[in-house]
Amino acid sequence: MSSSTETTRQHEAWEPGLTRVPFWVYQDDAVRRAEQEKIFQGPVWNYLCLEHELANTGDFRTSFVGDMPVIAVRAEDGSIRAFENRCAHRGALIAFEDGGNVSEFHCVYHAWRYDLGGNLKSVAFRRGVNGKGGMAESFCLEEHGPRKLRTATIGGLVFGTLSADTPPLEEYLGPAISAKIRRVLHKTPEIIGRFTQPMPNNWKLYAENVKDTYHASLLHLFFTTFRITRFSQAGGITISDDGAHHASATYAQLETKDTIYKDEAIRSDNDAFRLADPSMLDPVDEFGDGIQLQILTVFPTLVLQQTHNSIAVRHFVPRGTDAMDLHWTYLGFADDTPELRKRRLKQANLVGPAGFVSMEDGCIGGFVQRGAMAAAEERSVVEMGGAEAKTTDTRATETAVRGFWQVYRRLMGI
Amino acid sequence: MNSPELLFRLAALNTDYANTIDADRLEDWPGFFLEACLYKITTAENEKRGYAAGVVYADSRAMLADRIAALRQANIYERHSYRHIIGMPSIRSAEAGVVAAETPFLIVRTMRDGKMDLFAAGLYRDRVSQEPGGLRFAERIVVCDSPRFDTLVAIPF
Description:
Chain A has 414 residues and is of the alpha+beta class.
């Protein structure tokens, strides 16, 4: 049996640094398998669900940590527990709904029962029937059960980790990213919509895409066409110390006379294009700090998005080397006025699978996956804005993408 | 009011609607709606839970026109087309010039390279207004059976 490192040795060595990425990392199934152990089950906090979805004892949600199906549940003592969604008996899913409310879990296959902490409580016909059959006397319930995750929350986001080495959540995030999560999720959220967007690409291509501020107004022409965000607008990128997490910000200072795009002869400049109904682009500064857009990532698979008044959590789940699911949860707050809620519904047109400024992200990863199909040993170039992964006051940079590779290479040991 | 004629007119409306989108006459698509209207693409799950957001949400004909303008001028996507197969409307009520109907649909998506997928299936939940110029949608809620929207949604449902 070949280990992942043996398999990756078939590739040409990945030169040190953050500015070149070999395409085999998006293609090789050995890499995908190694990621399960070293990334998702490694020293990271994986997003699981919203605390709001686990309001009452027994409320649960099912999710994924890499390939691993998991259950997050509110236990009797008020804590949030999470465990692998795999029966200790034959490996069947313990819960196969997206969520619900239960007093305990039982596997449908042979009715093995688990409490809300994922502890095996009973085995059907353990003593057999009429003195025949049954489990051996030595069978110990406590020795069997699905793997458990530690959980932690910030701003109502529930995270889980399988590794004992993962630092406390806020230490993992760092103070800057923690503050920017709390900035958006500062009161009780309310779910206003859920959608899933399958994408034909490796999960890392989406992880990079969402950290790539360079592409934002070049691929997504809607915003630039309507002069909503430009590189000439004030903004910047905050990167956590290890590069893992980022938050980009764009401030609401519109410069109408800039010529950056005209000088570059970029096709997105079109003065003639105006909305017939601009009510969609009538945001209010609900956070009181002038930040119009904040896109935040928590390594490995969470995005917290504030696009004007459209707030969403995006969770991406790998589905093999060349596919992933992006789960969108659109949020409002419980105390939204009807006017603000209507704004959120209208501004949701900007994001999601049909989003004016996000639909391209649905196909662009697939274009890379297909374009680089025969280029496993070639490298992509991630050199915009230098070679480091540091906080910066410009968005014309790939600094956050380099941050992703910095933590990825460290964890994977490649 | 639940007459064969009304049923026929609704079916004809849906046929025109489908042909307009499938033949890429998207600029004519907003004309099927009243000036103040509601067009939303959502899912059965969101409807069941009372989640109001859609992947597309427009409350005016102008917003629908803006979406088409954006598709033509700003958005980037691989060339593809739809084939709508729209079932027989089920009339729920018809009073004061407004008909409430539910109509099942299928959308097959054909990509540039010929790859075909069953892209969406669901129910149009409509409120149709009888206007002097013909029937217009006051409301068309596109309730998709699946929560999954593969790759991207550019062309309207």
